[in-house]
Amino acid sequence: xxxxxxxxxxxxxxxxxxxxxxxxxxxxxxxxxxxxxxxxxxxxxxxxxxxxxxxxxxxxxxxxxxxxxxxxxxxxxxxxxxxxxxxxxxxxxxxxxxxxxxxxxxxxxxxxxxxxxxxxxxxxxxxxxxxxxxxxxxxxxxxxxxxxxxxxxxxxxxxxxxxxxxxxxxxxxxxx
Length: 176
Fold this sequence. Notes:
Layout: H1 13-22, E1 31-33, H2 38-44, H3 50-66, E2 69-71, H4 72-83, E3 85-89, E4 95-99, H5 100-104, H6 113-125, E5 129-131, E6 141-148, E7 156-157, E8 167-169
Antiparallel strand pairs: 1-2, 3-4, 5-6, 6-7, 6-8
Helix pairs in contact: 1-3, 2-3, 4-6
């Protein structure tokens, strides 16, 4: 299940999104079902406001990463990427600011804007970072040290006391 198998492709974003929902992250109570073709219908529907069409466009872009249900926090995260600054909870409990432009200048491969946006959402969809419950305008990301091994388990965040026995490493995809 969670180990790499020769000749088998990695799971798609849909599997990662399903696992995130199944693990019930704290504060993730609202999920949006993305119907096939919804974006195309939204663009053609003259009754919808420009904001509603823009939201449909975002959901259309996020669905391949999260699956057919997208957490509301993914929309908030996408808006934060647009604003250019991500707020991140530090291990000492403080909040640091991370410029999206600075992310693009980190050593290694230099992704384009779309790839960088996708990379941030891939981390979120995999449960490696979560959005703290709170105000969408004051979005704060928390780095996940360990995800629960199954639904109902505890999440361990950077800065939390270690030793949660019911958790698995945050990068381990063995949770579907």
